[in-house]
Amino acid sequence: xxxxxxxxxxxDDKVADQILVQRYKENNPKAExxxxxxxxxxxxAMFRQEATPAKREILLTEKQGHTVKQCPGxxxxxxxxxxxxxxxxSNCPIDCTYCILQFYLNNPVTTVYANSxxxxxxxxxxxxxxxxxxxxxxxxxxxxxxAFDSSSGFSKDIVHYFAGLNNVLLELKTKSNRxxxxxELDHQGHTVVSWSVNPQVIxxxxxxxxxxxxxxxxxxxxxxxxxxxIGFHFDPLLFHDDWKTTYPDLIRQLFEVVDPNNVAWxxxxxxxxxxxxxxxxxxxxxxxxxxxxxxxxGMDGKMRYPKPLRLEMYRTVYDALRSYxxxxxxxxxxxxxxxxxxxxxxxxxxxxxxxxxxxxTSLYKQFPGLMAEEPQRTVYDNGVPLHHEKxxxxxx
Amino acid sequence: xxxxxxxxxxxxxTIHSSLAALPFKxxxxxxxxLMKPIxxxxxxxxxxxxxxxxxxxxxxxxxxxxxxVYLIQExxxxxxxxxxxxxxxxxxxxxxKALLTQAALExxxxxxxxxxxIFPQMELAPREKLIDQILFLLKLPGALQTFILDKDLSLxxxxxxxxxxxxxxxxxxxxxxxKIGINMTAEIIQNVWEMAxxxxxxxxxxAEEMGLWEMADQEYEDTRIAVMEIxxxxxxxxxxxxxxxxxxxxxxxxxxxxPDGVKIKWDPYFERxxxxxxxxAKNDEELDQILTKLAASPFKxxxxxx
Lengths: 396, 306
What we know:
The complex is a heterodimer. By secondary structure, chain A is an alpha/beta fold. Chain A has helices spanning 19-27, 40-47, 101-104, 116-128, 149-152, 154-163, 200-206, 213-225, 243-257, 277-284, 307-325, 338-345, 352-366, 377-381, and strands at residues 8-12, 32-36, 57-61, 68-70, 84-86, 89-90, 109-113, 135-138, 168-174, 191-196, 229-237, 263-270, 272-273, 296-297, 303-304, 331-333.
């Protein structure tokens, strides 16, 4: 996968002396650099620009307010896992057809909050308020965690920082193979490098600038070799011809490279999107056919495959994971109903808090030494979000 | 801009061909138009009629030697002239806007200027992309153009007709014979278009495969029957897994031999788990029969399908 070419770097005066700014400049010597005191009106004007393939601007600015937030997830109609996100970077260069970010962030500006010290201190302070609870925090919600890492080197800062925190795992979620910076780091087992995965036929058709499956497999091999925990996200599963063979084949390939004992978690989810996104996808990606699938409106108002089809797809993937991987893998559904959990896995979490607790318990058992003490259910049942707001989108 | 009122001779002035098609609903508003003075423009070589040419022609035909006109003697730009014409014809319907857009292009107004300066005057979004979309209206069969105005459809709604490609006559017949409204029409076009794209086949062959093509030439006394048939055909094509689940459920229910008083309802397009079971029993004996059947294993198998 090629690093996205950055054409312009706009530096807010307030962060001009930050290390991230220096790295962006050094690693993109051909990019135009503009430094200014940026007003909110100027930012809004930047966000109103139309995205074009040739134009990618980085806005390095200061994050005000809270950084650590709840995963946007969905309402309580479907199960969520009480995951938290840090939105240090907003916007993604990978251009996946199905990605909602393209429609909320359909402009050429990638916002990077360069005051990373403050962001990381906020994580430390917030998780310290619930020391008996084990958190999972990721950076891959509003961007790909590693797509800009050759420019920003942010992984070096954040992996190092999380290595010193006791009750949290960092998840770097990616469709890239930009793992060079990770290989030399002392991560202390506190980072999960996870990949969103799909068969190559889907990568070709729908994940336009992502790393190929082979590139991702090679990246997995390398990070596994230096002791990182691995995660897989079969999300979104996409209905296509031959899906009944391509998904099991993909899973077989993954476990030829990755030892199931190193897998911290695996999520499964299927295509879902707000109805208004459909016409935008048809306009932006006229060759894509994913919007023509069998789709109904789910209980949360989003379009989804109908339940009989989802069940069939989930069972196929779940069975292949158990078969090629291991019976002990921690597999969960992202934004799915209790009924789906029950009918595919034979059980379901009692609540979102219960699912959060099950994550912690699984990690405790699988990775001795990661936690000082066995997780207690009451801690999770009584846990509160690190911040009451769900993740937001800049410019909206 | 300088405008004066003048009596103009009916012999001589040239018609401004680009604007002669305005307004679209000429016949219905003929009386009003005849009451309204003509709008003319003094070009360097002659006087051109730019508004209400129909009044001018009617006066010519009636043998009137002169007609009163608003004469634009000076105009700084074509843009200014067009803005005045928009005000003259206000309120413009969607077809008028399309006609004026075409006229503006013929008069050499650049697309970017048309979008930014003229469209807002016509209460259209200032986007260049809209130019081709609104010009599409002029390619529609007359019956569809009238349908658009009769139903006061928005441009966004009307653009669904683009997806019918070369088969707008088929759409026209569908609307006329089945007496369906725009929502049903849009649903048909959208579904046929999507299924055709999905399978890389033509719109027509997909409509034929779905059993919709021939429906356009059938007349229905009751539109509700037609709508039910259309929906059934669309759902069968759009939702193969749900259709299969429905068939499997029906077969299982048939095999369960439930008494007539038991009604099973499953809404496949809603995510709610399970089915609604309703029954009527007139006495203990019937109630026992029903409960026995509902407790038997053939009935319990229904949930595996849905």
